[in-house]
Structure formats: C-alpha cells, structure tokens
Amino acid sequence: MKIIAYLKTGCPWCVELKKFFDTNNIEYIEKNVTDNTDFMDEMIELSGQLKAPTIVIDEVVYADTDVEAIKKVLEDL
C-alpha cells in the first residue's frame, strides 16, 4: 500500500492525520504543499482543489479529508 499525504503547515486536520499515521506506524510520504510549489501543483492536478489534507492511497484520491474518513478507508482495504 502506498500513501501520499499532501499537507499544509498550520492546518489542524493535517496535524491530526500526521499524528494518526505516526502513532499507528503507517508508512506514508509527506508532501508539504506550503513549502513546495511543485507539491501544490501535484495536489491540484490530482484533486482539482487547493484544500488539504489530500491523501492518496494506492492512486485513489481523498481530497479535503480527515482522520475518521481515512481510518474507514484503511479498515476497508
């Protein structure tokens, strides 16, 4: 399973998702869109929006999501 997390600095939902992944030892690639315009462009191309967090799990995009939604997705895999 490949997880990419597009996150923004100062975003409380992004902090929650990072904590969830880290606490549960879930491997993910973090792409901070605040610090890197290329990552922002990727996120926009994938999701069609500017909102974070945007999570990609095995090429499926979950835009402007939260911990509970991602927990459910991971449970259903």
Question: How do the helices and strands line up, and which of them pair or pack?
Answer:
Blueprint: E1 3-7, H1 12-23, E2 29-32, H2 37-47, E3 54-57, E4 60-62, H3 67-76
Parallel strand pairs: 1-2
Antiparallel strand pairs: 1-3, 3-4
* CATH level-four homologous superfamily name: Glutaredoxin
**Amount of beta strand:** 15-25%
Number of strands: 4
Succession of helices and strands: EHEHEEH
Taking all Cα atoms into account, the compactness measure Rg is 11 Å
Total helix count? 3
Helicity level:
40-55%
User: Which structural category do the helix and sheet elements fall into?
Assistant: alpha+beta
What sort of overall outline do the alpha carbons produce when their principal axes are compared? globular
Could you tell me the mean pLDDT?
96
Which CATH-level-2 architecture?
Answer: 3-Layer(aba) Sandwich
CATH fold group = Glutaredoxin
- When the domains are counted, the total is 1
**Spatial strand arrangement across the major sheet:** 2-1-3-4
Name of the CATH first level: Alpha Beta
Low-confidence stretches: none
**Termini distance?**
9 Å
Largest sheet: 4 strands, mixed
Notes on the structure:
The chain has helices at 12-23, 37-47, 67-76, and strands at residues 3-7, 29-32, 54-57, 60-62. With 77 residues, the protein is an alpha+beta fold. The protein has a 4-stranded mixed β-sheet, sandwiched between helices. The radius of gyration is 11 Å and the shape is globular.
